[in-house]
Design a protein that fits this description.
By secondary structure, this protein is mostly helical. The protein contains 2 helices and no strands.
Length: about 70
């Protein structure tokens, strides 16, 4: 159950990383232009939320490790 939650959290953070990448760089082959030139505060906010998402992944991994250590000591 915990591994499934970690997988979903990682998948969400990875999907948001793809959105941030497209927002910053765009894709000229698909004619998707960078929206950071038009909405500067959006890119700052979405980059901050991406850092928070991966910070949550790291914290969740640490909680899983602490849980595993606590179970192994019983």
């Amino acid at each position: 159950m915990v591994q499934a939650m970690l997988a979903l959290l990682t998948a969400g953070a990875s999907a948001s990383a793809a959105v941030v990448y497209l927002a910053h760089g765009g894709n000229t082959k698909a004619y998707w232009f960078s929206i950071c030139q038009q909405f500067n505060s959006f890119c700052q906010r979405i980059s901050g939320s991406l850092i928070g998402s991966f910070g949550g992944v790291v914290l969740f991994v640490l909680l899983i490790l602490l849980f595993a250590i606590a179970l192994s000591r019983r």
